[in-house]
Amino acid sequence: MEWLKEPERHFPPHETLKHFNDGVCVTYIQEKAGLSQSTISTYLTNMEKCGLLISTRHGKWSYLKRNEKTIKEFTDFLT
Fold it and tell me: Which of 8, 15, 56, 62 could crosslink 22 through cysteines, CB 3.0-4.6 Å?
């Protein structure tokens, strides 16, 4: 989640899109984390189901970005 807060600082833009408007390519997240594809997929899917991440597909690539609205609502609830 911290990496996705400032994606341009932690990831290269995908060679096709050249921007982070739709988030970071899942492949890049998996490579940076150094965990297996299945482990990362499970973590990211669960965070998406909870509403913490927003997923967008472009062709065969999936991109994820933080859902800042839900994150703010959650932190407000905790405080």
Answer: 56
